[in-house]
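Continuing from the previous page of notes. For each protein in this section, the sequence appears first, followed by its structure tokens. Read the first protein now.
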Amino acid sequence: MTDRARRIVIIGGVAAGMSAAARARRLDESAEIIVLERGAHVSFANCGLPYYVGGEIEDRDSLLVQTPAKLRAALDLDVRAHHEAIALDAATKTVTVRGPEGEEQLSYDALILAPGAVAVRPPLPGLDSPRVTTLRTVDDAVLLRERIEAGGDAALRRAVVLGAGFIGLEAAEALRQQGLEVDLVELAPHVLPPLESEIAAPVAAELERLGITVHAGVAAQSVERHEGHDTVVLADGRRLDADVILLSVGVRPDTAVFEAAGVACERGAMLVDEHGRTNLPDVYAAGDAVLSVDAITGLRRPVALAGPANRAGRQIADHIIRPETARPLPAPVGTAIVRVGDLTAALTGANRAALREAGIEADTLHLHPTQHAGYFPGASQMALVVHIRRGDGLVLGAQAVGREGVDKRIDVLATAIRAGFTAADLIDLDLAYSPVYGSAKDPVNLAGMVGTNVVDGTLALWYAEDWEHLREESLILDVRSAAEFDAGHLPGALHIPHTELRDRLDEVRTAAAGRPVRALCGSGVRSHIAHRLLTQSGFDSASLSGGMLTARAVLGDDALVR
């Protein structure tokens, strides 16, 4: 940079771009800061769009966090809506921009690329129907709600949502809240594909309770256009009539212009260093269009989340204005959360699939604690999954679903991952306790205790997904009560309540006939007690992680005998 007032040009508003612009102004009052936004709105609450469609956010203006006029008055930012960057010349440090009054060239001293992502449009016949829409902009949300509220013959009554990711679920619920019949279609085996199947199962059940029909593990094959409606044809032959089809199958980085100008990209996402710099001089990039390095696995992937985008924009501005003190951009851990009906589902860090892809050996802990003290009115159970690295117990990822308390535990575990904590460290966390808010042994502390037992060999686990081959080579020992056993149990299981086990070890020895014993209970607590007794009595023993609560979610009720 020279001593003259620097010009910072930012392409793309909303999260990364506006965060960078605001931070740059706070650090340098003399800089000329120009923000170019292709759409009509900058700094809008894109995460709030489904809630506007559903009517929970009543006023569309609530979605507009800032306007160009407000940004000019508060921060002296030159924000230009309806201006699209159509070319970049890194040699002359100029950007060609198309606006309402034609094309112009803007020079820059520093350029920040925050173009975001665009909705993926798979090559489905009929997807060009006017009844197909997305939910990416304020205008998308406003138009969809206007159509819902139109009334009469123009009213929307049936919707098909293609894609059951976070936005797809929020959109499906919003449409259902407005009284539409809703079908939700997902190619992956279950809704919210980043979730483990045992965490996704309660979410799918909640969607069905809301009246949303879920079609998982099946692809949409085509869209047929008719005079009064469209029909989505699924690969299995099912036909879903729709007045509106909401496309939410994912996004891709919007980088074609910049890749053509020489910005290094991989799978369409821009490559940056630890300070957000691209391979071109004085050109930075942040947000959904950037390839991030996963903090857990080291795998490279775009992370389309508002939090990391906002933080990256801020830190890029730091590096432009005062590089000597700028901190590097942290690798994201991918913390995300969604409300579905009365449930909350959240995740942070790596899931099992990512750990397998990265070749990281891990143990998975399943717990079913209540969100606060069980004796205090209103206690409700959550399902909590924590992945720890085999050998040292390093916390690698966590997921949870429940009615209350999920956000708190996932946020604590996200912090633990960022801090490099092990399971043993979780035990020592001094978390707020009152019967109204938690337990003396918080679910996070409990996860640490279970994880430490696994690491030091006090506890050996077996998993519900291994049931089919384990039933042939092991004795399955059910230590629940008689009533629980009669309500549903795994075929061939030997039933001995844990309180009777000490007096019936000979019975177990005879039934096992030298085979390993795999114990189970309701949630994993009683089977751990049984496992310790069996191990110290000479048996090859393990306890079912998460007990029958997890087994039902993984295997389904059809796998049980009553």
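Done with the first. The second protein uses the same format. Note its length before scrolling.
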Amino acid sequence: MMWALYALTIALAIGAYRKRKKGLVVWLALLSAAFFLTGKTAFLVLGFISTALLLGQPLFVLMGSLGMALLATVSGLASFDEQVLVVRRLLELAGKEVLLAIPFFVVAGELMTQGSLARRLIEFMKAAFGWIPGGLAVSAVAGCVFFAAISGSSPVTVVAIGSIMVPALLKAKYPEDFSIGLLTTAGSLGILIPPSIPMIVYSIMVSSATPVDPTDLFIAGVVPGLFIGGLLAAYSITQGIRFKIPREPFSAVRLWEATRQGVWSLLLPVIILGGIYSGIFTATEASAVSVVYALSVEWFIHHEMDRKKLLLVAEGSMTVMGSLLVIIALAIVLNYFLVDQQVPDLMVEWMKTLELTPTKFLLVVNVLLLVVGMFMDIMSAILIIAPMLAPMAAAMGINPIHMGIIFIVNLEIGYLTPPVGLNLFVSSSLFKKGLGFVVRAVLPTVTIMLLSLAVITWVPWMSLGLVEALKKKPEPVQQTTTITTDAPPASDAGVKSLAEMMREAKNRADGGAPAPAPETRVKSLEELMREAREKKAAEAVPVVTEPDAGS
């Protein structure tokens, strides 16, 4: 099979580079070196990637074909019956309840983009922050933060808020590069401010190594998201002062009217996040609630939704979900091979040989993920890299939730770095600007993002503080009761020690006589119930439980 792949790749290279002789020579040299100097697995990986690039195939074709080829040649799952194991692994994906949250959040984001929830939210932010220096830019950042708490998607946030706010910023005499750079960067908060689709995918992909509840990731993303939003708002204020942008006077009447018009937009993140954090519903149930809420508000209250727009919502949602689910499913195949060959375990063992401290490990991880973010979209990085990095981080003693937030923030920056930064292409298309212009425009805000990443990495409290605070519960009060039996009371009284209770249990197990019981005992409820069941079964003596004085 390797010879066939080698020949196919050479033929494709000749066809692709026949008019560029230097490129053909370099490509053939690299391919031949990989074939003759590397092992079977390494060449299969490089060969399939080369073939997919030359054929212009999408990511899911590359991952699916590569995974099946590696399972057949390296793992030995060549027969049809053995390959069925892969299908079973894919069916396991359908059994993950949290996966249902992704299509619901996608639909909710489409509903708000097609309706007026996003526009009303922006009007409220302008009325609330427009009077401070750089107030309109601050309003844009705040709008991205709030909309991110609804849509869960970065590109959707850029489109929904950027299409409204960039023209408004330009009209208010803000520089064009500042306006586009700010909205492109602030839109990336869509994957950090909960609910977040990448957080859900991350929790699914690392579940076999370090189980992470997506609700915990949602809670952990609040403080880092607000921190980054606050830095972008501070940057906006400095630029408003620098460019001497005129401020709008504060108007209580305008703020009241904007609040009245946008109250349903403001309530949506409160309902969704409040329900998740209070435990009223799970992340999956919250996604369904967001769809019902957004559709009800747009149809019955705002009257901004009709059948034509519903078709657009369905078309956009199905396009996004179709591509996403295919990629996830075929990434499971490649992940199955990695687990079958114990690649994550081997990487953990290799990492231990380097004797890295947790600080050095996080530094290496940040550099690695920043490079990965330049060449791989966030979903691909989560599907391929996360299952390998998660057990390594756990072996280094790093909290899985903190690691998840570091992973998300790194790849959030990847949305803004060429050559594969998705938000760069979205902004270039949306604002009709060249990619080079957009890259230059985001340089100042990317610097702010890198500073934020450093703080979030070295201050774990930012990720874990809110999670630990919400999980703290008061210690339960130990209840006591008294058991009376027909046995005569003993002469002494006191509180049983743990050693005495264990000795009595051993005596009963050995058939010996039980130790004398004190006249008055203070026992735990669990101990008393166990003793009552044992005595009732052995002696058929009815057990009478006197109720507590306070019951």
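What the second structure shows: Residues 474-499, 513-522, 541-551 have pLDDT under 50 and may be disordered. Residues 483-546 form one domain. We return to this in next week's lecture.
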